Amino acid sequence: MAIHSTESWVVHRGGCHCGRVRFEVDAPAAIAAVDCNCSLCQKTGYLHLIVSRDRFRLLQGRDALTTYTFNTHTAQHLFCATCGIKSFYVPRSHPDGYSVNVRCLDPGTIADLQIQPFDGQNWEDSIEGLRDRDAIETQ
Ligand SMILES: [Zn+2]
After folding, report:
1. Is residue 134 part of a domain?
2. Global pTM?
3. Residue 88 maps to which CATH number?
């Protein structure tokens, strides 16, 4: 029933640049990532892998994280206070889950990477399609 049910799932590990923040996430080896063009993601080059909360585990670095919010202040943009890298955060589209930065994953576990553009500059008009897509993936 679920699109990814026959695909292999793996544990991806990743973190910030200096190594204080480390996490692991359960996801398919073939990743469907979202490339958002909003004012913040465009500047950081963030590549989103959105997962439910129970598929994400922060291994270390909770004390190293600083939070930035803007606009609706729903999203909790977490970045390492030492190296400045945003390796994961709580996204506005899925406030009960996490978005992991695919660019911050360790090499070796990604079998394939599909990138889907998301028009974050017109967030309200674009979000329904993203939610539908993720509902399929997380069944
Ligand atoms: Zn760091």
Report:
1. no
2. 0.86
3. 2.170.150.70
